[in-house]
Amino acid sequence: MPVPLKTIIAVIIRSWKSAIWRAADTDETASETTMGIVRPRTMPGVQEFLPEDQVVFQRMLDTIRQSYERFGFLPVETPVMEFLEVLLTKSGGETEKQVYFAQSTGSRNQGKEPELGLRFDLTVPLARYVAEHQNKLRFPFRRYQMQRVYRGERVQRGRYREFYQCDIDIIDRDTLSLEFDAEIPVVLDHTFRSLDVGEFTIHLNNRNLLRGLLDAFGVSDERQQTLVLREIDKLDKKGQEAVVESLGGSEIGLAKDVAEGLLQRIQGEGSSAQVLETVANGVSSELLEKGLQELSDVVSAIHDHGVSENRIRVNPSIARGLDYYTGTVYETTLNDHPGLGSVCSGGRYENLAAQYTDSLLPGVGISIGASRLFTGLRESGWGGQRATTVQVLVTQMSEELRPQARRVASLVREAGLNAEVFPRVAKIAKQMKYADKSGIPLVVIVGDDEAAQGTAVLKNMVSGNQESVPVDQLSALARDWLIAKQGE
Amino acid sequence: MPVPLKTIIAVIIRSWKSAIWRAADTDETASETTMGIVRPRTMPGVQEFLPEDQVVFQRMLDTIRQSYERFGFLPVETPVMEFLEVLLTKSGGETEKQVYFAQSTGSRNQGKEPELGLRFDLTVPLARYVAEHQNKLRFPFRRYQMQRVYRGERVQRGRYREFYQCDIDIIDRDTLSLEFDAEIPVVLDHTFRSLDVGEFTIHLNNRNLLRGLLDAFGVSDERQQTLVLREIDKLDKKGQEAVVESLGGSEIGLAKDVAEGLLQRIQGEGSSAQVLETVANGVSSELLEKGLQELSDVVSAIHDHGVSENRIRVNPSIARGLDYYTGTVYETTLNDHPGLGSVCSGGRYENLAAQYTDSLLPGVGISIGASRLFTGLRESGWGGQRATTVQVLVTQMSEELRPQARRVASLVREAGLNAEVFPRVAKIAKQMKYADKSGIPLVVIVGDDEAAQGTAVLKNMVSGNQESVPVDQLSALARDWLIAKQGE
């Protein structure tokens, strides 16, 4: 689009004015004005949305939060910065190598080393929080936390340096009932149904089942078992053949028939009972029995809660890479978006906060990676186009009618609807176009006739219908039309 | 309270078990286990709430957000880290000296200097955002932003290193109508009414009025005027006498009678008209006339919007310390909490983003300091005691009745209420006590008789009433009782 001459002239005049102003002011604000224009930009690897996407993202976070609260989870927020000593108690992890250090100007000027880092997940802050406040919390402690986390990742598709996690965990003291292993998928079922993302599958497994199966195969070294589990976790990405090869390689050293037998057993098809039968067919170990029993109990309790059978899948090939899971593990996939992989994962751990307290704090929880989920869904059009929070646009027909427009907007707002007065007097067509482009569903018109009669015209931008009503009935009609629209 | 012997023994056994586990695992996780217990704690100067406070704080943020959306403001969130080059374009400010630097492990290992800093307000990110995305935004651009900001302050009461700001701004291109100066207080009026904080006063002034008054007194040097305004801004804290002295000191150099006349004129009492008359009584300047006119127009428009007269106060002694305000300025005080000072301040600025773009972007906006406001209100008991998000506790009477309890909880949730199943089978008195202590208003009891009859007993923990109803009518009754409770 060619730039109109008027605009070019305006820009020249503006720069010239600005230059004069700057010259006149040089003494006072030298450092400010000599720096010139800095290109406005953000660091790579972060999500920053335009308002029409932010509206949808915010609605998504609200839905998740509402769903977590539906099950009585309590909100927690923790500071973005933690002491490095607290944050990095477990060395050697990949995530710990990606930490962002933080330091105040004062500390830096004194030549100190950074003492602070940004949280890289919500689990470490939870452990610190529960250990710190344990005497003031009620157990079992059910908390949700929805905040951004930070990782100095290499920038690549689907990997962010700043992203939202939406976590729930249930922590108890000393022992934690299997009840809660069953409740987590019930919360997820409610959450993903509320998000309206189409059909989804919650995959369930139990690490005792996998370790017990290895015991049954005579592979009972704990370190070797851990390596096997990590390899199984890559089955989706690497495929059967590559995993069999790794399992038989020098590091892990499984016999080929053991590796193949293992993979065959954990990839059974059919009902939950059939899948479990395939796993344990003709083999046995103490831990395997424990895993089978726990998993069956959990699945049975989930069904008691009323979760639809076809959304729950016992999947013994789910291993979860993280070593601290000790029992039930979860993954969730969206049937219409297989490419997204698991959008919500987690499991049970025997001790949340050994690094901060002697208290034994077993827990179970999951995390929804909201940023990645949003991007994946949004690419397929999820959430619709909604450029606005406004439900009712009040038009401005003339300077004289402005007080009337303001009063009508106030009435609509007091009735609980979001209203905006068009920013200036303009042709009605222009104001209608603004509503249309912004996605505002309703427009109110108060012209001279309406002002004289104490009425207003309400126009439905979707159906094109319009109706003239007394001003005091306007909000009720607007609400009816908005409800009708939602119902479509 | 003495520690029971049982607990002491449990701790000893646990430590011993834990020591064995650690010894067995030493090879694999040496660095993890040799570090021992790290004391769980956060940096000083940050707010971290227990759940019963976080529930109330979250409700406060929701109310503010809902109120901003009521006026059609669009949500924006920006990354916590900005490039230092972008963040620190204005050098010399106090806030800039308090910036937190951030750096990834990778960048640090390469011996680089930090390139990133944490945002210290929401205005700089807004300026960067609007400049960066200006071709994709619709103007006038109405945005709200509610995020945490970071300042390396010395730790003292009421000063935080991490705190929430809740901002609204309206930005236009080239010119911005005075309409919007009038709309901001209307939004504040709605917001503070919604927050239910008692009576409040929105103070309005116009910097042109103050500068114009100085012109009329023959004090027309812009730098001198700025120093005078900064001094007037301290009137509340330092008092009349100290300010007169500073104004007459060597740096500013006003004659004593000018200083006194100035302070007398800007502290008039009475109606808006009377206050403005006191300011301009017998003196005149071009800028003073402009200031008077703008302020009158804004006040008149605010009243058109239906804002109660007694909440709006023309207060010519409001100067705002920040130099970039160029017209209307706002402060808000809570009548019952004078010690909190202004809990929401802002004003009009002629150009938002000169450091990032040649576009002229005038705007007007305010910021609610939510963290400080919350602390101040909470100390006086605001928000009540609510340790829970749960509305309905479903009791567990026996193992056999557990499936029934789960189904009832699911029913209640599907009807849109927040429900928790008591975590285990226990005496009814204990379960009641849990509900009472947690602030859960309703309890559902399904015993053997009820299960046989398909009924449930709903107990109101506030009134003590209880009623037996068929299970399918339970949610409706619960909802009625909750609405009745809100109405109290």
List keywords for this structure.
homodimer, 488 residues, alpha+beta, eight-stranded mixed beta sheet, five-stranded mixed beta sheet, 16 strands, 18% strand, elongated
Percent in strands of chain A: 15-25%
Taking the alpha carbons of the first and last residues of chain A, their distance comes to: 38 Å
Biggest beta sheet attributes of chain A: 8 strands, mixed
* Number of distinct helices of chain A: 18
Oligomer: homodimer
Strand order of the largest sheet of chain A: 1-5-6-11-10-9-7-8
Structural class of chain A: alpha+beta
- Helical content of chain A stands at 40-55%
Uncertain residue ranges of chain A = 7-34
Which protein chains are joined by the largest interface, and how many residues does each one contribute? A-B, 118 and 119 residues
Task: Give the total of beta strands of chain A.
Answer: 16
What is the 3D shape of chain A?
Answer: elongated
Mean pLDDT across all amino acids of chain A: 89
Radius of gyration of chain A from the CA trace?
Answer: 29 Å
Walk me through this protein's architecture.
- The structure is a homodimer of 488-residue chains.
- The first copy, chain A, is an alpha+beta fold and 488 residues long.
- Helix content of chain A is 44%, strand content 18%.
- The first copy, chain A, is built from 18 helices and 16 strands.
- In chain A, the strands form three sheets. In chain A, strands 1-5-6-11-10-9-7-8 form an eight-stranded mixed sheet. Chain A has a five-stranded mixed sheet with strand order 13-12-14-15-16.
- Chain A is elongated, with a radius of gyration of 29 Å.
- Chain A starts with a helix and ends with a helix.
- Mean pLDDT of chain A is 89; it is low at 7-34.
- At the A-B interface, helix 1, helix 2, strand 1, strand 2 and strand 3 of A face helix 1, helix 2, helix 3, strand 1 and strand 2 of B.
